[in-house]
Amino acid sequence: MKKLLHISYFIALIALVSGSAAKAQETISKSSAQINFIENSWNEALKQAARQNKYIFVDAYASWCGPCKMLKATTFKNNKVADFYNDNFVNVAIDMEKGQGPALAAEWGLQAYPTMIIFTSKGKPVSGTVGYIRANDLIKFGRQALNK
Fold first, then answer.
1. Is the pLDDT of residue 11 over 80?
2. Which residues fall within 8 angstroms of residue 86, CB to CB, at 6 or more apart?
3. pTM to 2 decimals?
4. 129 forms bridges with which residues in the sheet?
């Protein structure tokens, strides 16, 4: 009988821990781990922005660019940045040396990387910045664009 009681306590404990773990996982998944980017498709970004009535955030980068890699490893993985950009923008990362990239770089007059540009849902530029940017500054950049 004592053994059965211990087993019941053990099962109850496992259920309690499992429930807490599931709750913790649910909390974690609500917070973004990074900005969710459409990869290398300006046309898809335009379609989604029109459907969602959101501005477009473009990360214009080159594969060899050190500051671009730093942005991806740090700023774009900041939870506050990720939550803000995923909630307010359609995000697209474009390698400016592949696919549509060279034509877009010429059309947009890009001179250096990383360049980050915010466009209206119709593809009209609103704001831009060049170079590595810290998390708080990227949020300010986005807020200013939304207020224009």
1. no
2. 32, 35, 36
3. 0.79
4. 116
